[in-house]
UniProtKB/TrEMBL annotation:
The keyword Transcription does not apply. Residues 14-75 form the HTH tetR-type domain. Keywords: DNA-binding. This is Regulatory protein, tetR family. The keyword DNA-binding applies. It comes from the Bacteria. GO terms for molecular function: DNA binding. Residues 38-57 bind DNA. Pfam families: TetR_N.
Length: 231
């Protein structure tokens, strides 16, 4: 451990802990909440003695919390990269002039971002399914952790929308944050449909894209109405 601190490297993860976490993902992704898993069932799936569990976790809540935090680390930064990649592609492919109004550029980036987001979802489908289920699961600890993580995703989205100039002029930072909060939750729910209904994937992509456009267009119109109504 001391050597790891000196070199800046992370200490190696215990194989038993990794096996238990992977087993929990396999079991919970099928149809279960993490906290509903039985200790012996989990140990059997991991190929370990049940007593091994308590060397690494206090209880199932603790295991679930560590799984969700690991997933957050896996997903959060790449999702920001996907959004920025979409912004770069919208200019690099020559299909949109960077000097055009923000609304037009924002629509194109939204379309690219949604596509890249759902591609990423398919690569991490088990973790996404678990997140959706635990958001309404029996554990308050895990629900609170997911709400915190989704707030973080929304903050990232709002910051990127403003930094990349993806919202129509006149929409306030508070409105952008509210839209980002709504979108972060809605995209997570749509992810479950996207995973489970392959035949509807194109329609789900279009639905997500239209919802983004409608939210920003609605915010813009409300802002303009407020200006016109002001004395």
């Amino acid at each position: 451990m001391a050597e790891a601190r000196k070199t800046g490297t992370r200490p190696a993860e215990a194989p038993g802990k990794r096996a238990l976490m992977d087993a929990a993902v396999r079991l919970a992704a099928s149809s279960r909440c993490i906290t509903s898993l039985g200790l012996r069932e989990l140990a059997r799936e991991a190929g370990l003695n049940p007593n091994t569990f308590y060397r690494h976790f206090r209880d199932m809540d603790d295991l679930g919390l560590q799984l969700l935090r690991e997933s957050n680390q896996t997903l959060r930064a790449p999702l920001r990269q996907l959004r920025r990649k979409a912004a770069r592609q919208s200019i690099a492919d020559g299909s949109i002039d960077p000097l055009q109004e923000e609304a037009l550029r924002g629509r194109r980036v939204a379309q690219q971002t949604v596509k890249l987001y759902f591609e990423y979802v398919l690569k991490h489908r088990d973790r996404v399914v678990i997140a959706v289920r635990e958001l309404h699961g029996p554990s308050e600890l895990l629900r609170a952790e997911l709400r915190k993580q989704m707030d973080g995703f929304a903050e990232d989205m709002a910051a990127d929308v403003q930094a990349l100039g993806l919202a129509p002029k006149g929409i306030s930072p508070a409105q952008i944050k509210l839209i980002a909060t709504l979108l972060s939750r809605n995209l997570l729910y749509l992810s479950l449909d996207y995973i489970g209904e392959p035949e509807r994937r194109e329609a789900i992509l279009e639905l997500a894209h239209e919802q983004i456009n409608m939210l920003f267009a609605g915010a813009y119109l409300l802002q303009e109405r407020a200006k016109n109504d002001s004395p």
